[in-house]
Write a structure and sequence with these properties.
This protein is α+β, with helices and mostly antiparallel strands and 83 residues long. The protein contains three helices and four strands, in the order E-H-E-H-H-E-E. The chain has a single domain, classed as Ribosomal Protein S8, Chain: A, domain 1 (2-Layer Sandwich), CATH 3.30.1370.110.
Length: 83
């Protein structure tokens, strides 16, 4: 199973870079037919996780993956499963 990982800890306070990195990892997953992308916004206040989820819920992004899963054991992780 192929998987990509995006850790947002280093750019948590750079809004424009966050969107660019999210777009990059989604594009890479689609191009390389990656099955799973693990996004790590971290725990913190939850604002970064909300931003990531809002990005992933955009209609044009949502059309690219089949489902989204928030890790029940680690609230600082999101899994995106592609078609």
């Amino acid at each position: 199973m192929s998987k990509l990982k995006l850790d947002l800890h280093d750019i948590f306070n750079k809004g424009d870079m966050i969107d660019k990195e999210l777009q990059r990892v989604v594009n890479e997953a689609v191009e390389k037919k990656i099955e799973t992308v693990e996004i790590i916004p971290g725990k913190g206040s939850g604002q970064l996780k909300k931003k990531v989820l809002r990005f992933l819920e955009q209609k044009h992004i949502k059309a690219l993956y089949k489902r989204l899963e928030k890790d029940s054991k680690n609230h600082g992780r999101i899994f995106v499963y592609f078609r």
